[in-house]
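ok so I'm stuck.
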Amino acid sequence: MSPAAKLPTNSVSAAPGADCRRASQLFAETLDPVFRTTIATPERIDDFRATLSTYFMGPALFFVADMLGTTYTFSRDAPRIARSGLDLILVQRTLEGSDLRTVNGVTMRVEAGDVSIFDLTRPLQTETQHCRNLTLVLPRHLLFSKDVQNDALHGLLFKRSTSTARLIGSHLCALFEDLPDITQAEAPTIVTATANLVTNLVAPTIAERQQPGPAVRGAVIMEIRRYIEQHIATADLGPDHLCKMFGLSRASLYRLFEPIGGVTDYIRTRRLRAAFDMLANDRKRGVGEVAYACGFADISAFSRAFRHQFGMSPSEVRDMGDRGPLSLGPAEKQSATSVHDWLRFVGSL
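replied:
not stuck anymore, here's the structure
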């Protein structure tokens, strides 16, 4: 296979030595769009190891992570969700060790052999002292066609004793072994086949988790959500506007959005998230300009809603600007940025 045909890769490794601290910072920086990563000072430096390998598979990413020798904490809260804008599903197989994971206020232990799934549009916190895992990062449209099904994926845990965990886990392990031989041309087909396998195996559990709703959802709610994203600045964007555009009664519209918190709350949340992105990425825009651009007519009401949603004021986010959490050199920043760009690309599909 020619070098040009191979999958693009990125690798970060931190181990005892003169550059241990900087390599640890790069490990955390590479994961920054996904998690706020905290690595505690090891009690015995000789026991410390942290490695992260990333494979770009076109419509997916494949992470291989190995961590031991200290306590690692990974958190994804509302501000990070808003700033990263990543609408992705992670399917993970734990190979060694374990972690404690908190999802929706419930803490669970994920052990070797288990398969877990989580949604990057939802909060998550996990802590480990020793864990090796494989993680496939997928755009949600490769899984279920209905948003209500994808919305039920977050926090799924299949223990190693289940057939679902064994089948998905063995497939991820086989995929990992084949990564050096997979070409860029082959990757999209392999990713689609893997997503189909995951979808079919988790579907029975999703059916049990789903809140009951009307039979007609799927394409309709996806179309409405896309419309909301494209018209976020429209001042009168609300239930009446949507009913008129899509020929729905108020009752039908409310039933469609009930499983995800209601249509009014959904519009407000999407507007606030768009505002966060603008403030974080364009320091030249004033708070009022951003508020109006995202459909808020009252700056005071916008500021109150923003602080309630993200725990910080619009000005604090704007002043945060492009500053990353770590001080790295140009080459190191470029290395981390490659993975960030891959994540953004997959999230845009």
